[in-house]
UniProtKB/TrEMBL annotation, chains A, B:
GO molecular function terms listed in the Swiss-Prot or TrEMBL record: ATP binding; proline-tRNA ligase activity
Keyword Nucleotidyltransferase: no
Catalytic activity field: tRNA(Pro) + L-proline + ATP = L-prolyl-tRNA(Pro) + AMP + diphosphate
Protein name as it appears in the record: Proline--tRNA ligase
Organism: Natronorubrum sulfidifaciens JCM 14089
Name of encoding gene: proS
Length: 493, 493
């Protein structure tokens, strides 16, 4: 390999130094760069394309289920933030404040939105008069800012991050619950069907809910390094925001009633989970469902075969494009095939078509899967169907590997030593019985930085909260007090 | 009409009080509301849908012509803004400053981006090594903030506004010019083909260029009230940003050279121009090319005909949806047809289908155009083709009216009295000869608030700047000095 292709390659190892490896993949696959201000990143074309893929997939689901997109101001007056006490307590320490406009000091400081409940709720109040106006379902795609002083990790920990935030109002608690589960289900589908990442659904423990929420539901994804990622959350806010912001409506009998609200969000952390789950020491790996380029064709020629090989390759590219695949024909003169193979592997193109003079002569095509380099030869005439099948195979390989990782890494433990030992040795989730006291989480967290990432729910998905099932052991796995809940401990991103 | 439908209607008149009328249409058609902080608006579902329509149309054109979407941080360190002197002078008076993160004062103030050249250019420098990296074409869809102390006018004058900003780097001045014209042409197409608004192309006078630009090109649209709207701008930045931020590249001979950059943007002001151009005293009017709902079906029934009418209407809705039209079947029980007619007129649905028992019996459909209520009857069997044709007719009506307004309102004048008199009496554009001195613009501006909104160009569209054609008169229309340029005066938004 030339020096240039060494520079191209990933030098860190996913299994030995996952943090450094992750940072290297993000930069070398052209997903993001670090901005000059700590905590901020620049999202480059290939990284932004992933976000656009996520947006397209989710946005069409939202719209098909009654959600309208809107845009609220990026600033929130301080007095608005203060109207819901949990919100101000929850976010005040991490708000970026605008204090000056031009050369003048503002009369009231403006928060750069850390989340938009406080600016959206007053308008929901205004727009909600009658039960006929409900449910009211709004969503916005935007960025938010949370001034956390932690090390920057692109897509996982940044002071500004992209997300969507949905905000809805309902006439009943049942309708609000239906909303919460609809959105959580859509997040689950995004992870499983588009990102090829199986997730666990559950709720956050009481002490870890969204500020002001009655219940926070979550989808959690297990990374290969044994840590959990909170993939997206969907909150039943009960009536706390409706009461703080006077969201009321006239019911069928013209009686004034207080609404129920929800909010739900998915951030570009989904991109982080995507990278972390599938990629390897050769670089980015993407399921074909989200890859901006699904198929790359690398023609391999000598001077005397060049015209034939390129013509044959271009015809195949045309056929695949006409069939709706996203295809790149890499006919660069200045790079040799080996360099190109490495580069497209680094960038995570799911399927490579290699076409040399033998393929032209035999009217065949050689197909190579990312990530495992499995090679097949298919007939030229059946290339469209073959590509379709091979892309499905690539997806299945990725999903299956992630599913195996998840299935093999949920373990039970019923004493502090066992919990600590299991997480310390294997990572993953440790299922235990829990008394419900935050102190028991703290006891574990202090020793091994693992926390309760979720509690499973039974009978969820309808118009009620669902219930945390009874644990097999009736003593708390940490303190030994009576326990009637199940909790999943894990280290998390 | 009921009280409720009076509340629904527009009470101001477009011809007598265009400003009040505009504000009323924006609010009553559900496009936007005023935010609690002066200068900010909340973009409601029907308003945001217009922005999404514009995004979809432009974004696909950008992508088809080599542009990649990216996302840069919303904050720019003060020291970065200061690196290009024209930018800092141009924007400093209207920057919103973040001074605190959480409870701590920041070491360096951060500007909320008023435009992103200063944060994008350093990365362009980093990403540009060789001539092979050029042209580099980046775009982002985002909002920006400019702290101007003027009266809020939704989509026209707001402190935060949505836009797209394109930023490119090139190996030559010719390549930069080609870029400038490509983007201006795409803006022109958006206005003319999607928004049904004819525009004039030209350049801004030297003293009104974008800070730091060599040339600012513009598309200008004439509103029915005689004022011009700057529809979008495309700037040739020459080498000033490349020099300030060291955007250099190795050419074919490995010599280091300085790049040429451009930037170009279109904001939600396009929505303002859209509303202002076509709407009327009944409310919003939208061309079918941008209308979120293109066709509304209003069934008209008595109790004994209800089932037949609704079934017939639903079948037609299905046929139209299957053909790709965006259709709403308004089968609300609690509203009468007259109320529905008014509401859909207010909301700007281009085509209304009225279906009563007679239509069912005769296997026909009655179609009504927005804005002129022209009525036709078409056969049920040919409804898909008929709707297609009628939507085209609606588009043509709107475009033709706007084109007539433009054609009839470009007048020539060659003395200050004549310029002032013509604009005072008719509004519109006044074409005159100009010596190039800003003082001549000031002389007119002081008296009648009209300015030079553009200068026409000859031979533009290629790889050069184009030239301002020779005027018919060789004396400046304002001061009488020798003049070799043409200028268009107009009042503007």
């Amino acid at each position: 390999m030339s020096d240039e292709s060494q520079e191209l390659g990933i030098t860190e190892s996913k299994s030995h130094k996952p943090g450094d490896w992750y940072a290297e993949v993000v930069q070398k696959a052209g997903l993001a760069d670090y901005a000059p201000m700590g905590g901020f990143i620049v999202t480059k074309p290939r990284g932004y394309a992933l976000w656009e893929g996520i947006q397209d997939a989710l946005d069409s689901e939202f719209k098909a289920t009654g959600v309208d997109n809107v845009y609220f101001p990026m600033f929130i007056p301080e007095s608005f933030l203060e109207r819901e006490k949990d919100i101000v307590e929850g976010f005040d320490p991490e708000v970026a404040w605008v204090t000056h406009g031009g050369h003048d000091e503002l009369e009231e400081r403006l928060a750069v939105r850390p989340t938009s409940e406080s600016i959206i709720a007053p308008f929901m109040a205004d727009w909600t008069r009658s039960h006929r106006d409900l449910p009211l379902r709004l969503n916005q795609w935007c960025s938010v800012v949370r001034w956390e002083a932690t090390e920057t990790k692109p897509f996982f920990r940044t002071k500004e991050f992209m997300w969507q935030e949905g905000h809805t109002a309902h006439a009943s608690d049942e309708s609000a619950w239906e909303e919460v589960w609809t959105r959580l289900g859509q997040y689950e589908n995004l992870y499983e069907d588009v990102l090829a990442i199986p997730v666990l659904r559950g709720k956050k423990p009481e002490h870890d809910k969204f500020p002001g929420a009655d219940t926070t539901t979550t989808v959690e994804a297990l990374m290969p390094d044994g840590k959990s990622v909170q993939g997206a959350t969907s909150h039943n806010l009960g009536q706390s925001f409706a009461e703080a912001f006077d969201i009321t409506f006239a019911d069928e009998d013209e009686d004034e009633r207080t609404a129920y609200t929800t909010s739900w969000g998915l951030s570009w952390r989904a991109i982080g989970a995507l990278i972390m789950t599938h990629s390897d020491d050769q670089g980015l790996v993407l399921p074909p469902t989200i890859a901006p380029t699904q198929v790359v064709i690398v023609p391999i020629w000598q001077e005397d075969t060049k015209d034939d090989v390129l013509e044959y390759s271009a015809d195949i590219a045309d056929d695949l494009e006409a069939a709706g695949f996203s295809v790149e024909l890499d006919d660069r003169d200045e790079r040799n095939p080996g360099f190109k193979f490495n580069e497209h592997e680094l960038n995570g193109v799911p399927l490579r078509l290699e076409i040399g003079p033998y393929e032209v002569e035999d009217e065949e095509v050689t197909l190579v899967h990312r990530p495992d380099n499995e090679e097949s030869v298919e007939d030229r005439d059946e290339i469209v169907d073959a590509v379709d099948e091979h892309l499905d195979e690539v997806f299945d390989k990725l999903y299956d590997a992630a599913e195996t990782n998840l299935e093999e890494n949920v373990r039970e433990a019923y004493s502090p030593e066992e919990i600590l030992g299991t997480i310390g040795k294997h990572g993953g989730y440790v299922k235990t019985s829990w008394c419900g006291d935050e102190a028991c989480e703290e006891a574990i967290k202090e020793k091994i930085a693992a926390e309760i990432v979720m509690q499973p729910l039974e009978d969820e998905g309808g118009t009620t909260a669902g219930e945390v099932p009874e644990p097999d052991h009736d003593e708390c796995g940490v303190c030994g007090d009576p326990a009637d809940e199940i909790a999943y401990f894990a280290k998390s991103y």
